[in-house]
Amino acid sequence: MSKSNAMCQREKAWDGCMEPEKKGLRYGLEHLSDSELVALIIRSGTRNKTALQLASELLSIQGRQLLNLYELSMNDLVAIEGIGKVKALQLKAVGELSKRIAETSFRKTLALDAPSTIANYYMERMRHEDQEQVYVSLYDAKGQFLDDTVVSKGTSTYAVLSPKEIYSFAVRRMASFVVVLHNHPSGIPEPSDQDNEATQRIAACGKLLDIPLLDHIIIGDRTYYSYLETDGRKYLL
């Protein structure tokens, strides 16, 4: 490729100039718009679209803006003209990294006596799921976070809350306390009768094993339900 052709491609990528790249180098990335930041990842446009135009198109889908980096699937991304599998994978990697950074930041604030901190830690991981998932979050004797895992995946309305799976994981990791979480894809975290019954079974199992169930948190859409905050005496003791 000639030097002139290479320059043309670089100019096309940035709408006639390298403004996002130059702006980022000169003033810092915090001065770039969301579209400019995404354009830095996309890097190159097509014959009909610049990288900035591609970025703006991606962010405008369903009005979700930066959430599209996490919520759109690979198939959704490659359906956009100018975004192939490699670019789609890079964009998904950015979304995944942002989620992990947020979780790492929240992890430092987890407190077993403050359900809101645990709910916030898992919120972005769970509220977007279109199937119910059951997470087990483990803590040591000092209340420090140990580990977590998904123990069950179900349908849009139901997942199995199995004491056997929950405490099998807790015993293997030598946990002192357990918090169970599951999501409601409807976005409404109010517990069902089945949720209440399952919570009582899990709590009873925890008493026998001397690994107390400290809370069962149901994740909705930017909201949550905590048994500890609401019905602790009835279901957890």
Summarize the structure.
The chain is of the alpha+beta class. Helix content is 50%, strand content 14%. The chain is built from twelve helices and five strands.
Give an overview of the whole structure.
By secondary structure, the protein is an alpha+beta fold. The protein has two domains: 3-103, no CATH class; 109-235, Cytidine Deaminase, domain 2. It contains twelve helices and five strands. A five-stranded mixed beta sheet has the order 2-1-3-4-5, with helices on both faces. Mean pLDDT is 87; it is low at 1-13.
- Rounded mean pLDDT is 87
Tell me the number of helical segments per DSSP (H or I, 4 or more residues long). 12
Q: CATH homologous superfamily of the largest domain? A: Cytidine Deaminase, domain 2
The share of residues in helices is 40-55%
The CATH topology of the largest domain comes to Cytidine Deaminase, domain 2
Q: Rg from C-alpha positions?
A: 23 Å
CATH class of the largest domain: Alpha Beta
H-E string = HHHHHHHHEEHEHEEHH
Global structural class: alpha+beta
First CA to last CA: what distance?
A: 72 Å
CATH architecture of the largest domain: 3-Layer(aba) Sandwich
Please list the strands of the largest sheet in the order they lie side by side.
2-1-3-4-5
Write down the oligomeric state.
single chain
Percent of residues in β-strands? 5-15%
Number of strands: 5
Biggest sheet details: 5 strands, mixed
Shape: elongated
Detail the poorly predicted runs: 1-13
Number of domains: 2
